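Narrative of activities, Objective 1.

The group set out to show that a structural description can be obtained from nothing but a protein's sequence at a throughput compatible with the screening campaign. Below is one input-output pair from the validation batch, recorded exactly as produced.
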Amino acid sequence: MPDRLRTPLGLSAAALLTLVLATVLLAPVLWGDRADAVDTANILRGPSSAHWAGTDGLGRDIFFRVLVASRLSVLLALLSTGLGVLTGLLLGAAPLLVGARLGKLVTAAVNIAVAFPGLLLALSFAVVFGVGATGAVLAIGFAIAPAFARLTRTLVASIAERDYIAAARIAGVGRFRILVRHVLPNIGEPLVVNATVAAGGSLLAFAGLSYLGLGVQAPSYDWGRLLGEGLASLYVHPLATLAPGAAVVLAGLAFNLTGEAIVRGIGQTTPLFAAARRRPEPRPAAPIPSAEDVVLAVEGLRVSFPAAGGRHVTPVRGLSFTVRRGEAVGVVGESGSGKTLTALAIAQLIEAPGQVHAERLEFAGQDLRQGPTRAQRRVLGTSLAMVFQDPMTSFNPIQRIGRQLAEVAEQHQGMSRRRAWERAVDRLRAVRLPAPERRAHQFPHEFSGGMRQRAMIGMGLMGTPVLIVADEPTTALDVTVQRQVLALLEDIRATTAAALMLISHDITVVGQVCRRVLVMYAGRVVEDVATADLATKARHPYTRALLAAVPHLRTDRDLPLTVIPGRPADPADAPAGCAFAPRCPYADDLCRREDPPLEEDLAGGRVACWHADLTAAPPAEPARAGEPVE
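Output recorded for this entry:
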């Protein structure tokens, strides 16, 4: 027994549950005949040495009847609880399993059901399903399901958007497997408590239905029927009612205490629910065109979300760019410019009600506009590596690092569990984690921030990535670790010929790794320029303002830091014409009226500005912190 269960609570719960289960198993075998023996000479006798709880109207021993009734009472209560918990889990996880649109309908139905008292629901269902044990099981099970579904929905929603869930989706893990393997283990403790409480409640509910004549029918009997039979002589012969009542209380207490002890014991070490594991058949690696130089081709990408009044907000609008094999491309811009949404759209992680439209969206030879198909999931799982911003939320906190990495190889490459584990250790070694064999057995909380980020990169390398998308991979790290992670990404790109797409709000970070920079503003690429030309040939006023806002060694420390005047454009209220016009020192009526196209310039880059020729000279000095902005 684990040490956490060797407590007064754990020992008491174990002893009480053992007593209940032993009675359930042994009582009908040992005392079934004595419980059914009719003795007309001892009808309605009080307690005695021969009959500890007295006898009933046929002279049968009440004590032995209570013991024998435990099997049917507990069995039916567990069946109804299992039905209610399973139904509640499926209903509560419906948004994750069937999508947000259909999930909303299920959630609305659950909310309506929760508004009715559980006892009223049980009585209503009992009438619908009919009198008898089967009808009572269905009635009580469906009566407790709505409350369990609402709890499940709340818990699932709290972690459904975590990065490790997104990583599992990119790896091609199915929705049901994500629910069982990644979601349920993280919400298991409150579910255990409520399931055990529901079991105790089901015992009481069954006793109530049988007492009313809606549950177990003669000649069978459970604690509820014994309660009903003894109630008529309550004042003359109280033990006839108190004995089955006490049995209900003790059994319910056994379940509740056991659940509490289990919750304290499992903590965050043992997954509560485990999916049945089947070794996948070996599958060939996803075909990657070797002759094609373009890894990612995006044209006219738009990402929109519904808003109030039937409108749609479009944070990404008309995005076009390509990434070639082995190329390092940086994507920069202020928060809200659409950088992360672009990466999620490429990884097929935009779910309803969000909508993704594109004239062309191809990755590794696959048209992603047709998906998601099995072939696409395989390509995304093995050829696209995603490195998320927060390394702490990138991993499932209750699974070992090695197990999470190995899942990718098992899912997409058909590796056995042992080979996948060896591959995971090798990938941890490849990202320069010390003692990878030991680290693979550790949990995410045992890693530092930089180590977790390296492990996240290692997860992306479990396949054979042709594109690594790193979304703000160094934001949560200190400067020293940031430099190490950037150097690791650059080394991986150089040694594997994988393309790198580095998303950042820091233009200097991008300049350390990338050869080309895409500058995004208000959901569009406003400039595509070589990193070497950033300081001298950047032509869009927004790009130049970003560069001017970066402090350097020559910055006058007596002056406030340079800032870009105004506020970023609101995707819900995008202005007509150029979105940067309200903040631009060169803006005129043409800029406020028409949106400039992204066109090639003489320097070989691309820029979307009506007055790109004016930016050859330094722009007007941006506003400084504390100065009023018109």
